[in-house]
Amino acid sequence: MNPREALLSVRRVVESLGDERVKNSYYLEFHRRSLVLELASRYCQGGRVVDVGASPFILSCALQSMGFDVVAVDYNPEEYRQIAETCGVSIVKADLEKDAIPLGDGWADCAVFTEVIEHINPYYVGHTLAEVNRVLKPQGALILTTPNIASLFRRLRLMLGLQPQYRYHVHEYTKREVEQLLEQYGFNIVESFYSDVNDLTFVDAERDEYLALGSYLRLLALAIRRPTKLNLLRAATYPVVRLVPSLRMLIVTVAQKTTTPNAAKVERW
Q1: What integer is the mean pLDDT of 117-144?
Q2: In total, how many domains does the chain have?
């Protein structure tokens, strides 16, 4: 099953078992998750995938539909456990800031770590990355996405004296910071780029409309049809982020395990 088909196959489960928050996430982040699945189809060489920080298990289910053997790791899996179990995804519980991931050394061929690192206290992020490294086999792939703290909208908020970081995030990163962290904890960067997928799709739309987005022409059409402040801003600023990639909203990094780091030290100054 190709990535888009796999993600669409999860729709029924989300609609039947998800709350409004999960349903909104499915549609709003459809294209970002599709991008992650496309990368998994290219870089996950082998059957075992660990989805780290996986709740509400939408991506885990799609990966399972693509034929991977998925184990989903999360701090609080109970809230959406039924979604994962309906898809046949195995779940393990772990506090990523403190616990060891309850999988053996080298268990996974590939690790997916998307929209998670920004929720982890930077004092403990080394522990998390060391654990992800440990459960990966040698040469195993890591796929990571995270918001770009240096995006255009973050910069504009800062210029207006507003907190640029999303209120539920603990710490956001620049692309170079992400790359340095991964290199520090035993990974070699294979591919790292700024994606415009969120700049094109994080808009005001009806749920089914999100699935049709993904190009500037479709964004313009939506802004004309539904001229909200957000949609007009996205349409007006997209040419800028298209021209200057470092202003885009999303950082995407694919890395390969090369060494096993020593246990991470917690540094507070």
Answers
A1: 97
A2: 1
